[in-house]
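P.,

For your records, the input lines for the assembly:
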Amino acid sequence: MKKLTRWLSKNLIKVYAFLGFTYLFIPVFYTFAFSFNNSGRSNLVWKGFTLKNWKNPCGAPDICMALGNSLKIGLISTILATVLGTLIAFALGRYKFAGRSTTNLLIFLPMATPEIVLGASLLTMFLNLGITPGLVPTIIAHVMFCISFVVVTVKARIASLDPRLEQAAMDLYANEWQTFRRVTLPLVAPGIAAAALLSFSLSFDDFIITNFNSGTVTTFPKFVYTAAARGIPAQANVIGSSMFFIALIVVVVGQVLSNKRKVKI
Amino acid sequence: MASIRGVSAKSFGLKDNKSALPYLLLAPGLVYLAVFFIYPIISLGQMSTKTSSGEIGQYKQSFRFANYVDAFLESKEQFSRSFIYATIATVLALAIAYPLAYAIAFKSGRWKNVLLVLIVAPFFTSFLLRTIAWKQILGEEGPVIKVLRGLHIISPQTTLTATSFAVVTGLAYNFLPFMTLPLYASLERIDPRTLEASGDLYANGFTTFRKVTLPLSMPGVVAGTLLTFIPAAGDYINAAILGSPSNKMLGNVIDARFFKIVDYPTAAALSFTLMAAILILVTVYIRKAGTEELV
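Structure tokens returned:
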């Protein structure tokens, strides 16, 4: 007993962290487990193990169309937001200029505005201008809320660089462009990749802003929300779980690649 | 992940460039934000003082500021509920996330990167699916309620879903990674030698935490609480899925005004009030906490 209390007081924080992670992952495991449920229309009660949902992920009506829309919106928004945000991050991270604090404020404000206000304001503008909500307004909205996150992520990476590396390149007679191309950009690249991954996951998972601006276009989160009223098909759990594993693989592969590069240097 | 590490990092080695280059880099992104963030907010402001022109969905500008009073009086209950729920959820998330971040920063050894990935990983399963999973876990068919009733901890009539408890824990759960990452970033930056120094000066573990660790991690606490409170105050998904009609938050009202009742001016007035209230709270909070540099 005494041994146990001593072990507990020594490892209290680790036990606590374990409980924290358990809490974080219970719904993820639950979603994964119920992707194997031999359910009918609704997926509420466990009815036995089956692989049929994984063999036929598009089995539920409209689910893969919704998934396709989400992937399309996510990819286009990610590319645009990453380019626009990275340019701003370089300006903020590398140059002194008048209007710096205004720029910082303009980047911070979208992150400090609740999604419902962002969604409602964009919808109001589109309606005023006579633009029908749909795919393009949704992409416009997603790029808007992703830019700030890209700026913050890439800027942090730029700030963490050792300025002596660039000075060394210049000392070795590289001009400004060569220094940027051969030294700065490769060093910032992991930050840009992280920002793109973040943008994609924000866009793919967004419901509130999308719901305001997508009109009749269905995305995966919209599909889940609408289906929730009458029972979510197990195929939604298959897609949710697959996204989880794909993202984990992307992160792990990225980590391994960057470790390899470090070893080379 | 890297984002929050640099939240308050001073950028150094800035070039004093007199050319137009920085402005050329800024222009596309800032113009985009002006057109698709600032201008829509202005549109929202204009909409909030309009009145119906007879037809459904058609409005004319009549500068009726009483829209705000009407909107507020009609939904002051949901308004205060949003802020109360968001505050409790933020405190709850801080209580869960701080030890978690502390363990990752100081006790995880070579598992640090793996654990950091695990903090963000649940994000990749759609948050709607996870919230609905909570509904099923806590619901009548779920395991939790059976165990609690079996042990006579709760009475057979008591439910867990469709309560404020479910909504608040749902909010705390959904925004937990937003709390954990900034906390980790500020804890990780603490030089372990400062903690050793504190011990050398005869401070015990608790005193070291209270006098050294906690003050040094304040930027993380501020960033984390903001990143949790702001989305929680505007959320309506948790209330819609885990709550009952008596747990509706302001977001639910705005959503219904837009899509069910088609009363855009009131919805706009409510959105504007929500945004203003949050901005005022955030400004006061940042002043009090003394961390000006957030971005």
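Two observations worth noting. Chain A touches chain B through 99 residues (CB under 8 Å). The first helix of chain A runs from residue 2 to 33.

Regards
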